[in-house]
Amino acid sequence: MLGLGAAGFAAAPYLQRGLESFLGSAAGSDPTGLTGLLPNGGGFRYYSVASSVPHKNEQNYRLKVDGLVDRPATYTLDALRRLPQTRVVRDVQCVTGWRVPSTPFAGVKLSLLLDAAGVRPGAKAIRFTCFDGTYSESLTLPQARRDDVLVCLQMQDKPVTHSHGGPVRLYVAPMYFYKSAKWLSGISVTSDVQPGYWEERGYDVDAWVGRSNGRSDTPTV
Ligand SMILES: Nc1nc2c(c(=O)[nH]1)N[C@H]1C(S)=C(S)[C@@H](COP(=O)(O)O)O[C@H]1N2
Ligand SMILES: [Mo]
């Protein structure tokens, strides 16, 4: 029913031609894991590849930074809040065509956490993991160090809700929204790019909005 796998991929070329009307009728074959519409979601759709996700709060949320670093660290929500916060306002764009214009996201620059951890020479990429137990994402180190890549505590100027991946999600402003891992729990510095959940299923690691079709094996015309 969720249209994952082959059926979802078959729909992708249509989606890339931007057939909004097709999208309207094809929510069930969304290839990136649509599981429902958010009531009063302001244009957002709720995505989770995991069928249930534990709730985390002040007390039990932890973000681990490890891998090829000199100073591995574990942050509580409070520790993240006490770091300098950055706010960016950009359009959100899913590969399947839906878009939410001018959405504020705020949190800690990923580059700040990487500098605090001390990235070792030879490191090339980041692997992100999530407390849904399933999803993962990746960025190259230069991508991860951009000023518009945030470890977000706020979305739409409110704490990130559970549905949107709270209490902490990633926001990769220049890329398709699948890069913005929800329920973020791990940031691991790696020697090579380890493709994330959708990337293992054919989507681009370099998911620049407008300069990528979101899928590496689909011819670009
Ligand atoms: N952990 C996790 N993060 C995820 C996803 C997911 O299924 N699980 N889906 C991605 C996709 S494809 C999109 S479009 C956005 C959707 O974010 P939203 O549910 O806040 O609208 O989350 C991204 N991050
Ligand atoms: Mo998506």
Task: Tell me what you see in this structure.
This is Oxidoreductase. Pfam families: Oxidored_molyb. InterPro entries: OxRdtase_Mopterin-bd_dom, OxRdtase_Mopterin-bd_sf. The protein is of the alpha+beta class. It folds into 2 domains: 47 residues, no CATH class; 151 residues, Alpha-Beta Complex (Sulfite Oxidase, Chain A, domain 2). Helices cover 15% and strands 29% of the residues. The protein contains 5 helices and 12 strands. The strands form 3 sheets. A 5-stranded mixed sheet has the order 4-3-12-7-8. Strands 5, 6, 9, 10 and 11 form a 5-stranded antiparallel sheet that branches. The protein has a two-stranded antiparallel ribbon with strand order 1-2. Strand 3 and strand 4 form a beta hairpin. The protein is globular, with a radius of gyration of 17 Å. The N terminus is likely disordered. Bound molecules: the ligand Nc1nc2c(c(=O)[nH]1)N[C@H]1C(S)=C(S)[C@@H](COP(=O)(O)O)O[C@H]1N2 and molybdenum atom. The site of the ligand Nc1nc2c(c(=O)[nH]1)N[C@H]1C(S)=C(S)[C@@H](COP(=O)(O)O)O[C@H]1N2 has 20 residues, from strand 2. Molybdenum atom binds next to loops.
H and E order: HHEEEEHEEHEEHEEEE
Radius of gyration: 17 Å
Total of helices: 5
Parts with pLDDT < 50 across at least 5 consecutive residues: 1-29
The top-level CATH class of the largest domain is: Alpha Beta
Q: Report how far apart the termini are.
A: 30 Å
- Helix proportion range: 10-25%
Task: Quickly give the CATH architecture of the largest domain.
Answer: Alpha-Beta Complex
Bound molecules: ligand MTE, molybdenum atom
Instruction: Using the alpha-carbon principal axes, give the shape.
Output: globular
Annotated CATH topology of the largest domain: Sulfite Oxidase, Chain A, domain 2
Give the biggest sheet: 5 strands, mixed
- The assigned structural class equals alpha+beta
Identify the CATH homologous superfamily of the largest domain. Answer: Oxidoreductase, molybdopterin-binding domain
Note the beta-strand portion: 25-35%
Question: What is the spatial order of strands in the main beta sheet?
Answer: 4-3-12-7-8
| Total beta strand runs | 12
Number of domains: 2
Average of the residue pLDDT scores? 84
Protein name: Oxidoreductase
Domain Oxidoreductase molybdopterin-binding: 52-198
Pfam family, one: Oxidored_molyb
